[in-house]
Amino acid sequence: MLAGGLDMGPHTARKRRRPESASGRDDERKRCSHGSPDHDDDGGRDHRGRGARQGPRAPDRCEEGGCCEEDDRREGAGEEGTRGEGDDREGRVRREGPRKSTRSKASAPEAEEEDDDGEEPVVEVEADDAAETPEVADEGAEKDSEEPVKDIVLPKGALVLKADDEDDDVPVYSTAITGATADPVKDYLKQIGKVALLNAAEEVELAMRIEAGLFAEEKLSSMGKDEIRSTLGRELSWVAKDGQRAKSHLLGANLRLVVSLAKRYTGRGMQFLDLIQEGNLGLIRAVEKFDYTKGFKFSTYATWWIRQAITRAMADQARTIRIPVHMVEVINKLARVQRQMLQDLGREPTPEELSRELDMTPEKVIEVQKYGREPISLHTPLGEDGDSEFGDLIEDTEAVVPADAVGFTMLQKQLESLLDSLSEREAGVIRMRFGLGDGMPKTLDQIGDTFGVTRERIRQIESKTMAKLRHPSRSQSLRDYLE
C-alpha cells in the first residue's frame, strides 16, 4: 500500500524523492529544445516515476513530446532495473527470514543525483509475500544435500574387495583382509557363488563355441602374418576369442563342482585350497575334451577328470617321502583289501591271507605295508601332559658313548708307547700296513717302494715285528682292551 492510498500490489517498490532545486529545474527546461513550459516543477507530478508522491497539479506535456517520450523511456528502463534489483533482494531476504526489508541505491537515472543535503535516494522493498525463486530453491537444496565426505582409512597392506554388480550384497568397501585373520576359503566360495549354474542347453551352446574356438586357434597357428590380417584371419581371431569367453564361462559355472569333490579328500596330507586348485586343473582338461554330441551332462563327464587330478596330486605331493604313483595304487589296493578282510574275519588278516587275495608273495605284502607307513615326527608329544617326545625314546646309533670314547683314547696312547719300543723301520712298517696313522692300510708293494726294498723283505719284517708284539711282556697291557 502506497502513502497516497493507491494499492500497487505486494511486490510494488516505493521510491522517495526530495524536491529538486532551482538549478535542477532550469537544467530540465533546457532539455526541451522547443521551449515548452516547465513540466517538472515543485507542484507537478513526476511522470518519469510511477511510484512518486502525488502533487496538487500535473504539468502540461510539451507539444511535440519528443523529449518527454525519450525521458519516459529512460525512466521506464531505470524503473524496471530497480524492480529487478528489488526482486533479487526479495529472494535473498526471503531466505534470511520473514518480513525483512532491505535498502539499496536506486538504479534509475534520476536516482543517481544526490539531493541538496547530500543524501542518496533509497528504495524500500516489501518482502512479506515474496516467493522463493527456483534458482534459490535449487541452491538451498544443494547446500542441504552437501555432507562432509570422510576418507576411509584402511590398514597398510590391506586388500579391499569391491562389488562387481550394483545389486550385489557385498559392500563397496568390505572388511580389510590382512594376515592370519583372513578366511581365503570363505572368500573363494563367495566369489564362485556369483556365477549362475547352467542347464543342459546352455552347456551344449558353450561347448559348441569352445569347439569352434579351438578349431579357429588351430587354423590361425598354421597361417602367416598376411593371412591373419585378412578378412578370414580376423574372423577366425574373433571366433577364437569367443571360444575363450565361452570356456571361461563354462569353467566359472562349474567351480562349485570341484569344491564338492575336493571335500572328500581333506585330511590326507594336502590343504583344502590346494585340493581345489588341483581339481580346477582337471576341470580345465574336461572343458577342452568334452564331447557334447554324446548327450551327457558336462558335470557327469568332468567328475572323472577332477577326481583323477586330485588323486594324482595327492600321490605326488601328500607324502613327506614321495612314492611312485604305481606303488601308491598298490598301497591303496592293499589297504582296501585289508579293511574288507578285517570286517569279514573280525581280526587283522595275516600276510599269507592278503597274498592270496592280491596274488602276490607274502614277502611282497610285507614290503608294501612298510611303504605305506606314514612317517612320525620325533617331536610328537607322549603322555597326557606331553612332557616327553617320541624322539627321547629312540636310540641314536651314531652317538658316541663317553666310556667308549675314553677307552679308545687310552688304547691309542698304549699303542704309541708299544710302537716306541720297536725300531724305526719296524714301527713304520706296522703303521703303514694297518693304517694306524691315516686310516689307509698299504700293500706290501707300496711299503717296499717307500723303504726301497722288495715286497718279500717287507713281509719278513712284518712277520718278525708281530712276533715281538705277541710276546706276553708287550701284549699283556693290550689284552685288557679286548674284553
From TrEMBL:
What Gene3D superfamilies does the annotation carry?
A: RNA Polymerase Primary Sigma Factor, Winged helix-like DNA-binding domain superfamily/Winged helix DNA-binding domain
Question: Positions of the region Sigma-70 factor domain-2?
Answer: 250-320
This protein's UniProt keywords? Cytoplasm, DNA-binding, Sigma factor, Transcription, Transcription regulation
- Region feature Sigma-70 factor domain-4, mapped onto this chain: 418-471
A GO cellular component term found in this entry reads: cytoplasm
This protein's superkingdom? Bacteria
Q: Where is this region: Disordered?
A: 1-150
User: Bias regions of kind Basic and acidic residues — which residues?
Assistant: 19-46, 71-99, 140-150
Q: Where is the composition biased (Acidic residues)?
A: 110-139
Q: Which GO BP annotation is one of this protein's?
A: DNA-templated transcription initiation
Major location, coarse class? Answer: cytoplasm
- Which InterPro entries is this protein grouped with? RNA_pol_sigma-70_dom, RNA_pol_sigma70, RNA_pol_sigma70_r1_2, RNA_pol_sigma70_r2, RNA_pol_sigma70_r3, RNA_pol_sigma70_r4, RNA_pol_sigma_r2, RNA_pol_sigma_r3/r4-like
Q: Which ranges belong to the motif Interaction with polymerase core subunit RpoC? A: 274-277
Q: Which HAMAP family match?
A: Sigma70_RpoD_SigA
What does the subunit section of this Swiss-Prot or TrEMBL entry state? Interacts transiently with the RNA polymerase catalytic core.
The record's family statement is: Belongs to the sigma-70 factor family. RpoD/SigA subfamily.
Q: What is this protein called?
A: RNA polymerase sigma factor SigA
